[in-house]
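Please study the protein below:
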Amino acid sequence: MTKHILIFGLGYTASRLADALKVQGWAVDATGSAGNIDFKNENAVRAALHDASHVLSSVPPDRQSGEDPVLARYGQALSNHWIGYLSSTGVYGDQQGAWVDESTPTVAETGAGRRNARAEADAAWMQLSARVFRLPGIYGPDRSALDRVREGKARRIDIPGQVFSRVHVVDIVSGVVAAIETGAAAGAYNLGDDLPASGNAVTEEACRLLGITPPPLQTLEEANLSEMARGFYAENRRVANGKAKRVLGWEPQYPTYKEGLLGLL
């Protein structure tokens, strides 16, 4: 029997997941500009849902309405499938540098912090018994500190104690594939690397690898960041990945940004 998955939103990460599954013999249907199905063509989507045993969404909630478009249009048709959802560790909000794991309440539960639409979508997918993959900053080919340094867009912001978690795109793919192959139970899984670190440390390592002098330290005001970027710097947390390792048997190929950047170089 052919293994068949429908992916909603064939973007940066999901397209790599699709490629990995095709290599393993999966039939893949997908919506999005790179997909083969128009999201608004309900007949085509429902035909693909009929054929698919697995469904994964990488579509974020609408920025203006806060509505999850996949759940709004097709949520009731998903109940008989294995369901996956690519979420964000932003659902945990600011934790002042503390560690978070899957038992940490999200801002949808506490009512505090930013990204409420994402947290509410995360909660809605959890209620559908999805495997919800909570992802920190994603980097990979053509999307890393190396590219920002080369393009002259890298910055170092002077915020003492500020740390982020991140994950290489290939490690997201291996985590999702592991969840499929192991028949992992529904629930949340953090897929992040082993070493939360400041954005400055990552930029400095990229500069070292490229032989470029790091950009000067700036204050938040001097950096003149967008509102979205300022919101990103307003949060500080370390994301624990122990559940994914324990339950999925997952180990990141790039356990820290140092291996990840070197691999990209």
Notes: DSSP finds twelve helices and twelve strands in the chain. The radius of gyration is 19 Å. The mean pLDDT is 94.
